[in-house]
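Our collaborator T.R. sent over the components below with a one-line note: 'Predict the complex.' Nothing else. No constraints on interfaces, no templates requested, no preferences about which chain binds where. So this is a plain run: every listed entity goes in together, and whatever single assembly comes back becomes the starting point for the next discussion.
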Amino acid sequence: MSQVQYPSVLLENAVNEFARLPGIGRKTAMRLALFVLREKQEDVQRFAAALTTLREEIHYCEQCFNLSDASVCSICANARRDHTLVCVVETVRDVMAIENTQQYNGVYHVLGGVISPMDGIGPDDLTIQPLVDKVNSGAVKEVVFALSATMEGDTTNFFIYRKIAEAPVKVTTIARGVAVGDELEYADEITLGRSLVNRQPFDQAM
Amino acid sequence: MYIKHLSLLNYKNLQEAELSFKNGINCLVGKNGAGKTNLLDALYYLSFCKSYFNAIDSQLVRHDQEFFMIQGRYHYQGQEEEIYAGLKKGQKKQFKRNKKEYQRLSEHIGLLPLVLISPGDERLITEGSDQRRKYLDGVLSQFDRWYLTAVLRYNRGLSQRNTLLKSAGRNWSSVAGQFEVWDSLLAQTGLHIFEARTRFITELEPVFQKFHRFISGGGEEVQMVYHSHHQRGALEELLRDSLERDAALGYTTRGIHRDDLELLLDGHPVRKVGSQGQKKTFFLALKLAQFEFLSKHFGYAPILLLDDMFDKLDDERAERLIELVGRPEFEQIFITHTQKERLMEIVQKTGKSYDFFVVNNGEIQPHEETL
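Returned assembly:
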């Protein structure tokens, strides 16, 4: 593909930019660029403006590091939510996933990833220190870990735990087990085994 | 469980074959390089979705051809199962069960248990400890999914720690605090693996000794001794104590990734004192022990492939080996050999039904005298 002759340098530039997006190869980039050419001018301008404003005007919530339009996000600004309950997640996408459950009324803390030396991510690249400060200030009663069940996720949990173990705070982690609506025989052995080890009293499971 | 029929195209040097097999002994005879082992490898491929000898699928396609295809019809728990494996150069390999393609190859592996014993298995004895860990992991993870997950987690954590060690040289102060966390998780996961290996080796040794005694005639004393850093104390402390050295070397020197299984013949390492035939007896017994574990686990006998196993064994050992596989615990067996007459003599003694196939320059024909 690198030898492809483009009829226009402008087109080639646009293709190069599209191809930088995750999951977009050069052929798809070409299709997208040609699509843009067929669009009305004002539609394209609106599209471009949405991208530049996104990048220029987005804020990270100064309390939880969630994406936000203001300096404090709508979740942290909501007085009806329980600010003593903090759920620790990797990314903004996890916040959205948990919000969609409508089961959680606490606030969040977005780490921005997990510790992974192979990806060049150390504790200082994450928002661990602000979390530790928040806990040490005494404003938090419970911290809920909701990170991936990988070696990296567990390491990050453990790293944070050691930093806040002395503080008077309850530390919990989300339960792992059989998915709701799943047939037992189709659950993988690891998950099923873990569900058995961490079984719970029947009257609390309803 | 056994394979009834095999058809293949362009697998290694085999151009085309349509063969029906017995649920007994199937003998492949032919000259060196004729393609006997390649046929065994095709059977291996149908069980494990890969070649035993070559990890690069595209190199399995016959010269100047674009694709290979292997199809096997199995008798499996009273039913027929059709397994299809195909690869077109430059494309993803296809694996189908009864014409339905698998989503993941891991769903297939384990369906058709099979043990291949080949002269290359000598590396279990002569080469580094990684070969023996691979053997342990291979057998253990077929029974124990937890074990496999633990090993994958451990290896991931180990790579992370090693990366951290390598980057530590530049900015020690910023990473020093992270080691305790990785060490603790590695020690925890490693302990599970260590315990599983210990239990398994305790069970394995008598089975291994039983097979070795049988084939060798019983004049030799054999042992397997498990060595692991976990035996020297809490791994977390060992990791902490070796941190300075690890940082200088750039990798982790303590942990279950350095485990070894020492194999002893009359108290000495068989690697050093064993003759070729003694080594062969040793790894034969190891692989037969694996066979017995799989049989027990699955409730039926795996297919057994014996590649050139009678070479270098004295007549007595060869005879006892064939007496062994003549027993009812063994069902379908494939044997390769260069000399038809000697193999014929050997298999007739088992009392099992048998068939002969002549392999010549990539072509396989049923041998007419035995039909």
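Summary for T.R.: The radius of gyration of chain B is 23 Å.
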